[in-house]
Amino acid sequence: MPLKSTAPAPDAHRAARPSLDVDRIRRDFPILLREIGGKRIVYLDNPATTQKPRTVIDAIIHFYEHYNANVHRGAYKLAEEATAAYEGAREKTRAFLNAASTEEIIFTRGTTESINLAAYAWGRAYVSAGDEILVTEMEHHSNLVPWQILVKEKQAALKYIPIEDDGTIDLQKAVAGISPKTRLVAITHVSNVLGTVNPVCEIAKAAHSAGAVVLVDGAQSAPHMPVDVRALDCDFFALSGHKMCAPTGIGVLYVRKSVLETMPPFHGGGDMIRQVYRDHATWNDLPWKFEAGTPNIADAIGLGAAIDYLTGIGLDAIREHEIELTRYAIQRLSAVPSVTLYGPRDARLRAGVVSFNVGDIHPHDLATIVDSKLNVAIRAGHHCAQPLMNRLNVPATARAGFYLYNTEADVDSLVEGIVQAKEIFKV
Amino acid sequence: MGLEGLYQEIILDHYKNPRNRGPIENPDIDIFESNPLCGDEIHLQAKLDGQKLTDVRFEGKGCSISIASASMMTEVIRGHSHEHAHKFIDGVRAMMHGEEKMSNEELGDMEALKGVADFPARVKCALLAWTTLEKALNDKLSGGKKVT
Q1: Distance, in angstroms, between A366 CA and closest chain B CA?
Q2: Whole-number pLDDT of residue A16
Q3: Any idea which fold A22-53+315-425 has?
Q4: Which of A181, A191, A412, B138 lies deepest, with the highest CB count within 10 Å?
């Protein structure tokens, strides 16, 4: 799986300039103005969480300072404003994903809760003994463990689509893994380790032909490229707000209406009911049937502001910027002796995520050194993808992930940090 | 001390050439532990003669700090008693909080781990081997059975 170090000289590509005005974008993010030890922050842990623009921070402050109230119930002006803003964020999310209706947009705490919602509400009702759930070897634990729990409870089976040595999925093998027993194909849109962009549309088509439903883990795609759930033709699509400039604690589960209508509730409680009797209750309309209790109003409004911000810049432009940065990073990193890169070589086949190792320097040591020397924030470890680490036959990797505010200078700092780490470890 | 205090020559030497690595036949202590957050792993084995740890060996996957700490640990407790091991466990734990419970003479190579205290995120790396040993000894004490 390692890529060979055959890259051209680092300056060879420089003709192609990113189309974003990154200098202007960087000024939108207050944290990027911070210096530590007189040096700027080089933030490359974007697959874990992203920084927040001023407009998102302001939207949350504005909510709490001007119209904080509970939603859907108060008969007074503040509550009406809060409800309008909360439901407005839902409409922004619908448009962002091109869903057919806001009935299909459920707010959750994040991708993990979104997938658990699907596993508990849909899975418990529609998966039974002998059924199969198909995942890939590159799934994040959040798209594995809920299914492991479900198949154990139901005596069903979890099956894996293998990954190829270049970090991609062979569509034929994926399709061959779908059988009449397959109830669900749960697949990540973009790998949080390899950056691979998976052919979810084609896999969805094959899954539907076999009568299975399709869940797409969009945690690493929705922030970085245009997503159209109707074009993908998926039944579930999960995302996390904090990975796309919104606050932590807010996420989304899109569910196709025809599927959602057949699902029992997830959590029971206030706001998800229509009538409650001594021994039973009836359920609220979609999507509120799936949002029990007081929701995370402020952060949903923050997500709406993040969507406004990202769509104002343009997801196509962000995607192109990240392809350019990824191409540059692959070129620079593969020119450093002892660096092993993982994932597809072609930047167009991947998102802005680059995992690598450097000789026998453990990724934790590398992360400590690049941070101490140059304020470069990268991730080190198994990235919540232990089955993938086993497939790659590595205990851990270092990972850099790019976003709209990153620059080639950030990549240069990373490479400089790696060179300094090699000196310390005499690699 | 900063980075220079963390990656001292002695740490890198133990990382690249770990002492007492490999399995023990018929171990009296046989314990596997991992750090779920970062994925570091240690498989620690020991032979006992009463209270004495006559042989201590390990296998592990991890960063320089965790491997070096495990390697040094096997050196300082091998041939010594439970009591001696507990003294070091307490001493290293205190060291990670910047406290000095043991003299540099007593610490020997272990003194090089003092620099880890400046890097809170790495303290768990340095402690993995020691907390694993502590668990094994406590289990041994309470159960009297083979720890697996």
Answers
A1: 9
A2: 45
A3: Aspartate Aminotransferase, domain 1 (3.90.1150)
A4: A191
With contacts defined as CB-CB under 8 Å, which chain A residues touch B122? 364, 368
What does the pLDDT read at residue A5?
41
Q: If you measure CA to CA, which chain A residue comes closest to B2?
A: A372
| Residue range B39-67, pLDDT digits in tens | 899 999 999 999 999 999 999 999 999 99
Position A9, amino acid: A
Q: Do the first three CATH levels of A22-53+315-425 and A56-312 match, i.e. the same topology?
A: no
Q: Please, which residues bridge with residue A350 across strands? A: A196
Instruction: For B83-134, write each residue's pLDDT tens digit.
Output: 999 999 999 999 999 998 999 999 999 999 999 999 999 999 999 999 999 9
ipTM of this predicted structure: 0.90
Angle between helices A363-374 and A408-425 (to 10 degrees): 120
> In angstroms, rounded to a whole number, what is the distance separating the alpha carbons of residues A419 and A397?
17
Average pLDDT over residues A376-405: 95
Per the structure, the count of domains in chain B is 1
Would you state the structure tokens that stand for residue B118, as one six-digit string? 């400046």
Domain extents in chain A: 22-53+315-425, 56-312
Is residue A384 among the annotated active site residues? Answer: yes
Chain A residues lying within 8 Å of B126, measured CB to CB: none
**A219 touches A140 (CB < 8 A):** yes
B148 found inside a domain: no
**Longest CA pairwise span in chain A (Å):** 74
The residue range of the domain holding B23 is 3-141
The runs of H, that is alpha helices, within A185-314 are 200-209, 229-232, 257-260, 297-313
Chain B residue with minimal CA distance to A398?
B38
Q: Amino acid identity of B100?
A: E
Average pLDDT for A52-76: 96
Q: Give the list of residues 6+ apart from residue A340 with CB closer than 8 angstroms, or none.
A: A2, A3, A356, A357, A358
Owner of token pair 């669900």: A184
* B82 in a structural domain: yes
**Beta-ladder partners of A342:** A355
Instruction: Say whether B3 and A372 touch across the interface (CB within 8 A).
Output: yes
- CATH code of the domain covering residue B84: 3.90.1010.10
B63, closest residue in chain A (CA to CA): A362
Contacts for B34 with CB less than 8 Å, ≥ 6 apart = B40, B41, B42
Give the tens place of pLDDT for each residue, A315-351: 999 999 999 999 999 999 999 999 999 999 999 999 9
